[in-house]
Amino acid sequence: MTSSEGAPWWRRMEAPTWAMAAAVYGGFGLVTWNYQALPWWSVLPLGAWFVCWQGSLQHEVLHGHPTRSRAINSLLGYPCLWLWLPYPIYRESHLKHHHDDDLVRPGIDPESYYVSAADWARMSRPRRRLLRARNSLAGRLMLGPAMAYGELFQTESQRLRDGDRSHVIDWLIHVPVVAAVLYWAVVVCGIPFWVYVTCFAYPGLSLTMLRSFAEHRPAATPGARIVVVETGLPLRLLFLNNNYHAPHHAQPGKPWYELHRWYRDNRDAFLKANDGFVFAGYGEQVRRFLFTPKDSPVHP
Known about the structure:
The chain is globular. Helices cover 61% and strands 1% of the residues. By secondary structure, it is an all-alpha fold. It has one domain. It has 15 helices and 2 strands. α3 (40-62) packs across α10 (193-212). It has helices spanning 9-12, 15-33, 40-62, 70-77, 87-97, 117-122, 125-134, 137-161, 168-188, 193-212, 233-238, 245-250, 256-265, 267-273, 282-289, and strands spanning 228-229, 278-279.
């Protein structure tokens, strides 16, 4: 938490983040509770929006917001609406990702989408095709979540085979957390399980992958590996300003509602530091990379 004693009360209390948490969970609750009354064409965008938004909130709280208490912050982020990654494991891997000198390096950066030349040489042809497809935007959105589920299972299974049981407690807690989410959605709200997966969990993770699609690239200097996407207010709000990814990496502890002004006031300096790695919105990524891989899956 970065607010100072001389700041307005709403900054000292981090009121915007509390308000965002209320909007995320309140909105998710309203959409699921009213599922039976909603037209079919509204369920998918609303479900995807609120699941993705909660993922953005998880990212904010693991960086120390809105309180100085890690336990309170973790409680805000613990629910797993996308039925995927246990919050403590996400926190651990994401904080490791913030070692900027190791960004995008396969086997070191846990959020890297790149593979080493040696691993590529050992891969089957179908696996190579999947990785190439995932480096297009359409592939990332459609295949990315399924591949993320599979890679998480593979990684965690290998961890157990290697005798590393450091994540066992996290998974034992994760199971009832996911069960509680599904009980609310399926039993209380009457949403069929397949509808929750296809209209909430999967597209919510897919929408998150829109933000992260071109977030990093291989480059000689760490600063040049981190993007800025100058998008409009709706997606800035959905991603809690994490589209300003270079400023976020520069000061990971800065709260989300300060990033827009900080970037705007220092735009030239940020774009000099990241070697002009900037997109004029996510629409530019759609036009350039919808069906065309943005780069090779092989690092560098």
